[in-house]
Write a structure and sequence with these properties.
Blueprint lengths: L21 H10 L23 H6 L16 H23 L27 H8 L19 H14 L14 H4 L2 H12 L4 H11 E5 L14 E8 L5 E4 L1 H7 L8 H8 L19 H16 L4 E2 L11 E3 L5 H11 L8 H10 L2 E3 L8 H9 L13 H26 L6 E8 L3 E3 L14 E10 L10 E6 L7 H14 L5 E6 L3 H4 L2 H11 L8 E6 L7 H17 L5 H9 L7 E4 L14 H6 L11 E5 L5 E4 L9 E3 L4 H6 L15 H10 L6 H8 L15
Parallel strand pairs: 5-6, 7-11, 10-13, 11-12
Antiparallel strand pairs: 1-2, 2-3, 4-5, 7-9, 8-9, 9-10, 12-14, 14-15, 15-16
Helix pairs in contact: 8-10, 14-15, 16-18, 19-20
Length: 720
């Protein structure tokens, strides 16, 4: 090796600031020293020699080499390879230097020391080879800045999708008591091989080709009906191949379960045999997502949107804040009926399939208002986000799994606390334990579907129930409060007025415990918190304390769901609900003796105000988030609330001081009575009278004729 330093003429690029390590300097010294003096390379882990390499060597070797990398022996044959690599790098650096506008003097160049935490850390990479490939400066790594996660490439996504297909279609149990004795003739290993071969095929067309090659269409051997009969003329024979390629006849169940399908799911089989080109005997091209006329598809989708909106889906009472986009149609309808009506009215889109209509309906976030069925959106998102992540196999790096684990833990804690309160009912006689909820959207009148009634804006009815925790509690009865949008709406002060009527019914109780839905619109706003302070300090009741427990969202009281299910069943049995009095009777009918049912009037509603101090809320050191509060307590002679973020009674309560100073000094005054009907829009009443009243009995018509009107929005599609 030549001891002269060819690097002395190198001009260092301005951006190259990577310093050599100690091991690298030793390599350079050794490579430029007569190797006859060193029969073996020096130990890289020992302290380097006191000889200091010249600046030319330091400038040339500004490449970062990890100390953990093994030392490369260059004593004999490796020396020539190492020298050639060095020469190649020198030539490339020379090329880079010629492009520079101004050159730097190598001796005057100051060697910059880079901290270890800013150094790049390429694992298992040769720094020289990476430089040769890129021919650019190494990327700058900013300390403390988190790198964004790279998305999967298309090839990786396809591979992941294929892996999910394989794992989601294992071999199922074979047929039982089959006359072909499939399980005896075909070994489990052959079944596994056939399953792997089938699902390793990429694309629907290839998998259909596999089915076509192993299924044979034959004519029926014996016909018991006429030749022109509608009975089938062909049957299918199914075959599996062994190791030698010989085909063995098996039954349909055995064939499907071997390929990973359920025994009763033959859709893939018949779809493959149906879409066969008669000339080539090959499956036709997969046309999914390849619609030629996109304008026609868009026009059809718009028509479906118009048709769905013609049913006037309305916003739910208690979920309008949590899910503002979710709307509900009457549970008298089904998707099948809606699709049939669409194909009948829109002749140009008669070919629209049920599945296409259903998909667009779901995309519109329209659901059916089934009383007694509550949806948990967190659990629904968890169930759909990844098939490989389930309750027993949570991914530690998955954000959805982490949120769901916290969510389900809180739901379990709430359930345990709820059950402990059920056990306390018979012990604490001075305490009233209740749960309360508002029924989902109910529309009147309820008449025969698919008449004009289904496409008319109907009257919105409200049903708020306060149910005791224990059905064996003889001291307290359930309280059901009813009203419709002509009397009052569902604003915060109107919902609070319903709570006020409940407290008046139980004014002699010393302590009231309520389990409520975790809804900000009803039970967690500042106006409701102001009301809690007012009612517990009011002279209208003897209550000493009110305690509110909040369910985890989507996991409400099953007893309340059961009650509303009874209401729905009673409505279905009654058949037709023409007016508000019919609805009231349907609610009373299931438990007429055990329930207190009361219809509210405008004089039962009060104008409750929000007396919270915005200045106090801004200056709170630890302002709680409403969604995190799980327990609230209001006590007499106190104008602050106590709260907790969990259900553990061992944890200390935090104080919430939120009322205005003026209110805390003078107290909360009794709100004024509303005393006037809200009414409904005049156009809505006119539509109801013209389209529906004529089909009602004469005894029910007066209710609709006397329905008050007002300059108010329609609550079906308004968030008021």
């Amino acid at each position: 090796m030549d001891n002269t330093s060819p690097q002395s003429s190198i001009i260092k690029p301005e951006k190259m600031k990577i310093e050599p390590t100690e091991d690298e300097q030793i390599k350079i010294e050794y490579s430029n020293t007569d190797t006859t003096d060193f029969p073996n390379p020096p130990n890289m882990k020992k302290e380097p020699d006191t000889h200091t390499p010249s600046s030319e060597f330091v400038a040339f070797n500004e490449f970062h080499i990890k100390e953990e990398e093994p030392f490369v022996d260059i004593s004999s044959e490796s020396e020539e390879v190492y020298s050639s690599n060095m020469k190649q790098i020198v030539e490339e650096v020379d090329l880079n230097a010629e492009v520079q506008e101004s050159s730097l003097n190598l001796e005057d160049e100051e060697v910059k020391v880079i901290p270890e935490d800013e150094e790049a850390n390429p694992e298992n990479q040769n720094p020289f080879s990476s430089f040769n490939e890129s021919k650019t400066d190494p990327p700058e790594i900013i300390p403390g800045k988190k790198r964004k996660k790279r998305k999967l490439s298309k090839a990786e996504e396809r591979a992941l999708k294929q892996q999910k297909l394989i794992s989601g279609h294992p071999v199922h149990p074979p047929c039982q008591n089959c006359r072909l004795k499939c399980s005896e003739r075909v070994s489990p290993q052959i079944r596994e091989n056939m399953n792997k071969e089938f699902w390793s095929l990429i694309g629907l067309v290839n998998r259909r080709s596999f089915i076509i090659k192993h299924v044979k269409r034959v004519e029926v051997k014996r016909r018991t009906a006429a030749a022109n009969s509608k009975k089938r003329n062909n049957v299918f024979n199914y075959y599996l191949s062994d190791e030698s390629g010989e085909k063995m006849k098996v039954c349909k169940t055995f064939f499907l379960t071997t390929l990973g399908f359920k025994a009763n799911n033959d859709c893939a089989l018949f779809n493959a045999m149906r879409d066969v080109d008669n000339e080539t005997l090959e499956p036709r091209m997969d046309m999914r997502g390849k619609v030629k006329n996109q304008d026609k598809k868009l026009s059809r989708n718009n028509a479906i949107h118009r048709h769905v909106n013609s049913f006037h889906p309305c916003i739910s009472h208690f979920r309008r804040e949590d899910l503002p986009s979710r709307r509900y149609v009457s549970n008298e309808l089904t998707i099948k009926d809606m699709h049939a009506d669409f194909t009948e009215k829109y002749h140009a889109y008669r070919s629209c399939s049920y599945e296409s209509y259903r998909t667009i309906l779901m995309d519109m976030d329209v659901s059916f208002a089934k009383v007694g069925i509550e949806e948990c959106d967190t659990c629904e998102s968890f169930n759909k986000h990844d098939p490989s992540h389930d309750r027993k196999h949570l991914a530690p790096d998955c954000d959805t799994c982490y949120k769901w684990s916290i969510h389900i833990k809180r739901a379990s804690e709430a359930k345990e606390k709820y059950q402990s309160h059920v056990a306390e009912v018979s012990i604490n006689l001075e305490t009233a334990y209740f749960t309360a909820d508002l029924q989902k959207a109910v529309l009147l009148p309820k008449m025969d579907p698919f008449k004009v009634v289904m496409f008319t804006r109907r009257l919105l009815v409200f049903n708020k129930c306060f149910l005791p925790l224990s059905p064996t509690d003889s001291n307290t009865k359930p309280l059901v409060l009813l009203w419709h949008e002509g009397i009052a709406g569902r604003k915060e002060e109107e919902i609070i007025s319903v709570f006020y009527q409940f407290f008046l019914e139980h004014r002699d109780k010393k302590r009231i415990v309520l389990w409520l839905d975790d809804s900000y619109a009803q039970n967690k706003n500042w106006k409701f918190l102001t009301f809690l302070v007012y009612i517990v300090n009011s002279r209208d009741v003897e209550i000493e304390s009110v305690e509110i427990f909040y369910f985890e969202a989507g996991h409400n009281c099953m007893a309340m769901d059961s009650f509303y299910h009874q209401v729905e069943t009673s409505i279905k049995r009654k058949g037709k609900i023409y007016d508000f009095k019919d609805f009231e009777n349907a609610v009373r009918q299931p438990n007429s003796k055990n329930f207190n049912v009361k219809t509210l009037t405008p004089w039962d509603f009060r104008d409750f105000k929000d007396e919270s101090s915005s200045q106090k809320l801004k200056t709170l050191i630890s302002k709680p988030l409403m969604n995190d509060i799980k327990y609230l307590k209001a006590a007499r002679k106190s104008f602050t609330l106590k709260y907790r973020m969990n259900y553990d009674e061992r944890m200390d309560l935090a104080e919430l001081d939120f009322l205005r100073v003026k209110v805390m000094k003078s107290g909360l005054s009794k709100p004024a009575v509303v005393g006037t009907y809200r009414g409904i829009p005049e156009e809505k009443k006119k539509e109801l009278v013209e389209k529906l009243v004529e089909d009602m009995p004469v005894s029910r018509r007066d209710f609709w004729y006397n329905l008050p009107v007002g300059a108010v929005p329609d609550l079906i599609d308004n968030n008021e």
